[in-house]
Amino acid sequence: MIPVSQAIPEQLGPVDGRALRTVCGHFATGVTVITSGSGDNATGATVNSFTSVSLDPALVLICLHDDSRLLPVVQESGGFVVNFLTQRQEPVAWAFAGRRTARIEEVPHHRSVLDLPVLSEALAHLECRLVTEYDGGDHTILLGEVVGLRAPSEAEQEDPLIFFQGSMRTPAWS
């Protein structure tokens, strides 16, 4: 645990990136694979920096590192899909997590209305049209308008995959 004396400095200033990552690791998030592109340019990346922004209009945001191989693909295609993963898809999450990742062709997928790749076995997904981008330090914040979605029926319901303290986990209620 970070001592209170270090957590609340007398003078506000830059926070150490490693300490920020440690503290933010205490916030449990869902695990998503963001997919985009077409043909040989189709790709995906495991992302936990996703949030719903607005219901009217329907907007969500994701954050991608400025050096991400996915960022130029999303910018070129003008859209992205947020695929929410199930606990049984942990191998898929790891496959799309690094610089060298799985190819879209290696996982079951289909094409959306906007011709974007959707992971067929995902718990749910949101298809988004890229609305705008914002500078986010070493990341780019992408705002997307939700133009298509799918959630499971009660019969299809599965437990989500979550990320907490640097590892993927199964929810405690499972």
The helical percent reads: 10-25%
Number of E-state strands: 12
CATH topology: Pnp Oxidase, Chain A
Low-confidence runs: none
Summarize model confidence as the mean pLDDT.
86
Report the principal-axis shape: globular
Keywords: Oxidoreductase
Domain Flavin reductase like: 24-170
InterPro entries: Flavin_Rdtase-like_dom (IPR002563), NADH-dep_flavin_reductase (IPR050268), Split_barrel_FMN-bd (IPR012349)
Protein name: Flavin reductase
Brief account:
This protein has helices spanning about 5, 15-25, 70-75, 90-95, and strands at about 30, 30-35, 45, 50-55, 60-65, 80-85, 110, 115-120, 125-135, 140-150, 160-165, 165-170.
What can you tell me about this protein's structure?
This is Flavin reductase. Pfam families: Flavin_Reduct. Keywords: Oxidoreductase. The chain has 174 residues and is mainly beta. It is 15% helix and 40% strand. The chain is built from four helices and twelve strands; from the N terminus they run H-H-E-E-E-E-E-H-E-H-E-E-E-E-E-E. Strands 3-2-6-9-10-5-4 form a seven-stranded antiparallel sheet. The chain has a three-stranded antiparallel sheet with strand order 1-11-12, with no helix packed on it. The relative contact order is 0.20.
